[in-house]
Amino acid sequence: MTAPTFADILAAGRRIAPHVARTPLARSDALSARLGAEVFLKLEHRQITGAFKLRGATNALLALPAERRAAGVTTASTGNHGRALAHAARAAGVRAVVCLSRLAPANKVAGVEAMGAEARVIGASQDEAMIEARRLVAEEGMTLIPPFDHADVVAGQGTCGLEIVEDLPGVGTVLVPLSGGGLIAGVALAVKTARPAARVIGVSMARGAAMAESLAAGHPVEVREEATLADSLGGGIGLGNRVTFPMVRDLVDDVILLDEPEIAEGIRWAYAAEGAVIEGAAAVGIAALLAGKAAPRGPTVALLSGRNIDMELHRRIVCSDTPWEG
Ligand SMILES: *Cc1c(COP(=O)(O)O)cnc(C)c1O
């Protein structure tokens, strides 16, 4: 599978426009005053299903020929990608099977079913759930739609970057949450094609930052997964990574790593100063600015990638008056 082109992102924009929200870009008066720079927030946490993943899942699904769609789609992701694929499949009248391990909590299983997908609970780990997804591909002709390492998924996520340069043609810096790299690869391709002078910076949690460690090693490496407030940024990039690792290596200017109290501060600021409930993964751009780890060069955008946070955890973070210990 080869990397997508800018033309693929434009095509994705046309393909998914009827099915996804065009999210607002809003100037943050509070961050602009604090940093003495123009700071904007891309409010992608307001996307349908609560995260940008709907863009990539919808694009990949609609790019399939009719006979592949008729056989259904599958994934082993339980988080925002699983929700997105379930929603996109239901909207397109396509069968979707989300494979989960027996460790998945009952509310996640119910959540997948509520989105209209079949939940297949099998195996003792996420890796074993993935084996079932591959079996569905081999034996039932279903199509696996992975969460990031896929050209059509990356092109779909890139439409978010397209909207940023449309709304802010003079953009100087874009801060993007980074895990497997599907979002930042697409956003960087879109933003840098339209505005080559712009910098695109990835932000990850310091605990288990798979892409950062892979970039340092020069090839994909495995990292130990640890609990983090930015749970949507957890997981590896895949040892057989083909699309996102080379794109991130070639297009992304810098990667910033944050500790847990810094991520908590981003969640808290979003709530108290911006009126936004966002998950930890989505708060890392704001957090990098607040921590002084990202310099806002030119008009600066922090991409708020999702809102799917446990509300009890959110309450504990925003109500706590001491720095987060986590
Ligand atoms: C998946 C996800 C990310 C990371 O996206 P990648 O394409 O894996 O880098 C960031 N934020 C949220 C809310 C996500 O769901």
Q: What does this protein look like?
A:
- The chain has 326 residues and is an alpha/beta fold.
- The protein is 45% helix and 13% strand.
- The protein has 14 helices and 10 strands.
- The strands form 2 sheets. It has a 6-stranded mixed sheet, with helices on both faces.
- Helix 6 links the parallel strand 4 and strand 5.
- Helix 3 packs across helix 5.
- The longest helix has 17 residues.
- It is globular and about 60 Å long.
- The protein starts with 5 loop residues before the first helix and ends in a 7-residue tail after the last helix.
- The model has no long low-confidence stretch (mean pLDDT 95).
- It binds pyridoxal-5'-phosphate.
- Pyridoxal-5'-phosphate binds next to helix 9.
Name the structural class: alpha/beta
Q: Describe the strand arrangement of the main beta sheet, using strand numbers.
A: 1-2-10-7-8-9
How much of the sequence is in beta strands? 5-15%
What binds here, in terms of ligands, is: pyridoxal-5'-phosphate
**Helix and strand element order:** HEHEHHEHEHEHEHEHEHHEHHEH
Helix content: 40-55%
What's the tally of helices?
A: 14
State the low-pLDDT regions, or none: none
Rg over CA atoms, rounded to whole Å, is: 19 Å
Shape: globular
What is the typical, i.e. mean, pLDDT?
95
CA-CA gap between termini: 39 Å
> Largest sheet at a glance?
6 strands, mixed
